[in-house]
Amino acid sequence: MAVMAEVSATTGAALRGPASPAPAPMKESDAEKLRFIEEMTSDVDAVQERVLSEILARNADTEYLVAKCGLAGATDRARFRAKVPMATYEDLQPYIRRIADGDRSPILSGHPVSEFLTSSGTSAGERKLMPTIEDELNRRTLLYSLQMPVMNLYVPGMDKGKALHFLFVKSETQTPGGLAARPVLTSYYKSSHFKNRPFDAYNNYTSPTAAILCADAFQSMYAQMVCGLCQRHDVLRVGAVFASGLLRAIRFLQLNWEQLAADIEAGALTPRVTDPSVREAVAEILRPDADLAAVIRAECSSGEWAGIITRIWPNTKYLDVIVTGAMAQYIPTLKHYSGGLPMACTMYASSECYFGLNLRPMCDPSEVSYTLMPNMCYFEFLPMDTGNGGGDASQLVDLAQVELGREYELVITTYAGLNRYRVGDVLQVTGFHNAAPQFRFVRRKNVLLSIESDKTDEAELQRAVERASALLRAHGATVVEYTSQAYTKSIPGHYVIYWELLASGATGAGAAVDRETLERCCLEMEEALNSVYRQSRVADGSIGPLEIRVVRPGTFEELMDYAISRGASINQYKVPRCVTFPPIIELLDSRVVSSNFSPALPHWTPAQRNDD
């Protein structure tokens, strides 16, 4: 009890902050998890030194560390830094290909590679295979287990109801050597850690496991939606992995509410759901309920979808969904559908490794920072402000050495055998929890629009869209989705931005916004872009007027369907912020309802040449 009191008084207060309400009595299991966070973050350098030594010891005889790096069994930081270079996926691809083809010798990892985790293929334009090992699941499961004890400090009572989380698997493939290749979440959901998990009141899902594990996206979504509707009063949080996934679920409800209501009224599942295990699982929940069917029809038939989440699931306390990075542009739409519910971003992870937690999960999305847990892997950071574009390993700094306010590229060394691997994420240090730095996700590296010498990254494009879309508010419209391309078929080339609009009223968004306003949006975007872009437009004439192409509603859903048909994971799918693949551009262009160009030159003077 003394331990719980100490944890509640120190960890709880530190995580909640001075303005938060007093905590409810804490469970012993929660206190243990919070104490673990305190222990891991109190001396991160010692933990990191131990982690690196463990990784190098277990992988000491691998071909990569012996033949490539000449490490000769050393496990200390000094020789690691001197011998092991930074690596990109392209550097490791020959080794990974051999493992995928069936070579079982210790190439990257001293432990057997159990499967490959695939990237979604939307961030860098290709599907990557990340080798993983069996005990990596233990580390992922541990990080998952820390989320709700932290959340309970801010939103107590989450063990008194259920979570409506739209979770999906992707049909896996096999490498030529017989190893499974699948997205990281599919791996987790199909693992015994998830399928045979003990009951956890904090993670009591409305969705049956059989529905989550169904590879057919329609059947899985339909079953999860009908079960969530049947348990509407039990739902305390609604979520998906990414914001785009939750919006896809809302769109599914818009398209299928009549059939869902009919099924609930009859107590029988539509024949469109054919998977026997899914039908059996849903049958345990679905009962005839004419009153519930009437509620669904009343709420969905009016055509007014503002606040639909809290109208259907009235006890929802927050949305559990990632809205950082490129997902930030979904925040206004989520607010529209949820009636302004808080949005909790709880964890930072990737296919390569799981990294850390948001210890203030109820903060505003713009303030989200993640505390990297030093037991997950060995972290290093490449400063972004040194002009070191190619990457000089001598400039890498350890987790305990990062500086407040600076931006770094994340570099990791994992138990599975990735050594000084450049993840491609750019992070900014925002503060510290104990001795552990906290980071804001800034952007993915090398997601750029470029016509000539200009370079526009994802974060800058996001800011320009936000600034321009403010002009739509007077017309009751918002940008619900966007992407872009550097159009070079004309001379000079120019930026093309594709917008899908949502109107708040009954009038279609395209009709609600006039051409003059959309042209002003083009110019507003140009004014928000960097001085190199504006110089190219004004002084050099090397970039033409920015163009906004408005596409018809549902276009970006078609874009996701196309990506999924080509192997992307529904869980990990993110709309690419720049598109270059001709079939995708053709799809977008075939859905354009209006094309609008910037009507004037943006502001630029020579004095601004070096200000960005």
From TrEMBL:
Residues 460-581 form the GH3 C-terminal domain. Residues 370-444 form the GH3 middle domain. Pfam families: GH3, GH3_C, GH3_M. Keywords: Ligase. This is Indole-3-acetic acid-amido synthetase GH3.8. Belongs to the IAA-amido conjugating enzyme family. One of its GO terms (molecular function) is ligase activity. Residues 7-28 are annotated as: Disordered.
